[in-house]
Amino acid sequence: MFRFGTALLAMALLLAACGGSGGSSSSSSSAPPASSSSTGSSGAQNASADGKQVFTQNCKGCHTLKDAGANGSVGPNLDDLKPPKATVVTQVNNGGGPMPAFKGKLTAAQINAVSTYVSTVAGQG
């Protein structure tokens, strides 16, 4: 139980710190929306590419995620945490600790794409 709470706290801190790169905040216009109408493996590839782009533009400065070439140290190391998609969605939407909420800053499609991306690639490689 304690370990789960610690993981949630780490995730909250990680996500809370996202977007804080260079003093400028990202808006939904900075990254294209994820492809939600695509299906099959090409749809998954599009969502992964969109999610990676959203991550790179909004989260890379604070989080470590090898697949994205991110070495941020403000938030948790996502490769170590390996968060499930539902946890990432909650954190991105609501923020926590130093991480701002991205609901209203990113579209629902962008939040879905970045959450899918992080939960899929974290801990890989």
How is this fold's topology laid out?
Blueprint: H1 2-16, H2 40-58, E1 64-65, E2 70-71, H3 78-81, H4 85-94, H5 108-121
Antiparallel strand pairs: 1-2
Helix pairs in contact: 1-4, 2-5, 4-5
General description of the model:
With about 120 residues, the chain is mainly alpha-helical. It has a domain at about 40-125: Cytochrome c-like domain (Cytochrome Bc1 Complex, Chain D, domain 2, Orthogonal Bundle). The protein contains 5 helices and 2 strands, in the order ααββααα. It has helices at about 1-15, 40-60, 80, 85-95, 110-120; strands spanning about 65, 70. The chain has a two-stranded antiparallel sheet. Helix 1 (about 1-15) crosses helix 4, helix 2 crosses helix 5 (about 110-120) and helix 4 crosses helix 5. It is globular and about 35 Å long. The chain starts with a helix and ends with a helix.
